[in-house]
Amino acid sequence: MSNSSLSNSMPCPICKTNIPFDPIGLIKGAQFACPGCQAQIGISGQEVPRAEEALEKLEEIKKQKS
Ligand SMILES: [Zn+2]
Fold first, then answer.
1. What spacing in Å lies between the alpha carbon of 16 and ligand 1's midpoint?
2. Using 50, 70 and 90 to split pLDDT, how confident is the model at 5?
3. Domain locations in the chain?
4. pLDDT digit string, tens, across residues 24-60
5. How many CA atoms lie within 13 Å of 24's alpha carbon, on the beta-carbon side?
6. How many whole angstroms from 46 Cα to the centroid of ligand 1?
7. Which residues are within 8 A (CB) of 25 and not within 5 positions of it... i.e. 6 or more apart?
8. CA separation for the pair 23, 39 (Å, rounded)
9. Which residues have CB less than 5 Å away from ligand 1 (the ion)?
10. What is the whole-number distance in angstroms between the Cα of residue 11 and the centre of ligand 1?
11. pTM to 2 decimal places
């Protein structure tokens, strides 16, 4: 079991560098650059509802922990 995915960062799909991101910004369509290879990471409008759902689940988990 791993809880490492709860932090607001994700591995770059290209170079595997951990990319810190703001989940609220991500939902609003912001793009984040990978510090390792400068790849642009972001989500398209079609994926926003799914991202919001994932964020809500993340917040629920955080509440349970505190
Ligand atoms: Zn990268």
1. 6
2. very low
3. 4-65
4. 888 888 888 999 999 988 877 788 888 889 889 989 9
5. 1
6. 23
7. 32
8. 18
9. 12, 14-15, 17, 34, 36-37, 39
10. 8
11. 0.53
